[in-house]
Design brief:
The chain has 167 residues and is mostly helical. It contains eight helices and no strands. InterPro entries: RNA_pol_sigma-70-like, RNA_pol_sigma-70_dom, RNA_pol_sigma-E_actinobac, RNA_pol_sigma70_r2, RNA_pol_sigma70_r4_t2, RNA_pol_sigma_r2, RNA_pol_sigma_r3/r4-like, WH-like_DNA-bd_sf.
């Protein structure tokens, strides 16, 4: 890879690492696993970097790679492994930590495929079409998964859903 392309990749990594790490945390619910997921993603992006025509589109490619790596990894996991939801190391400034922790704990219990859709749609604020492209699914499948994922989230939260939404 040329020194110029190498420099662009380093700048890209420095600029996007935090956002990728937050998205990875929302997907897997563990900061250490999120770090591993981001590292795996960046290795894949680096391998593809010389063939990217426009480095400005690398953010979308990296997010797509991150989500697909997460979903593929969940498919391969053995049935004996269970991801444990632990509270984040720090809460967002101005956020109610109790609401945030309850929501993150519930999100960690949602099926990984539905969780990927929920994170992309409602945390990353992606459109249905953008989610469909990232997840390599139809728009209808994304809408259906979002609906089912929200239903699963509501059933996990039970009566506390009104406290979280209304507080």
């Amino acid at each position: 890879m040329s020194p110029e392309r190498e420099r662009l990749f380093e700048e890209f990594t420095a600029a996007r690492y935090g956002a990728l790490r937050r998205t990875a945390y929302l997907l897997c619910g563990d900061w250490h696993l999120a770090e591993d997921l981001v590292q795996s993603t960046l290795i894949k992006v680096y391998a593809r970097w010389p063939r990217l025509r426009d480095p400005d589109t690398a953010g979308g490619y990296a997010r797509t790679t991150l989500v697909r790596t997460f979903v593929d990894g969940r498919r391969r996991r053995s049935a004996g492994e269970v991801a444990l939801a632990e509270p984040p190391e720090t809460a967002a400034v101005g956020a109610d930590p109790d609401r945030r922790l309850a929501l993150l704990a519930a999100l960690a219990r949602v099926t990984p495929g539905y969780r990927a859709v929920l994170v992309l749609r409602y945390w990353e604020d992606q459109s249905v079409e953008e989610c469909a492209a990232i997840l390599d699914r139809s728009s209808g499948a994304v809408r259906s998964d979002a609906h089912r994922g929200l239903a699963q989230l509501r059933s996990i939260l039970g009566d506390s859903v009104h406290e979280i939404a209304g507080a």
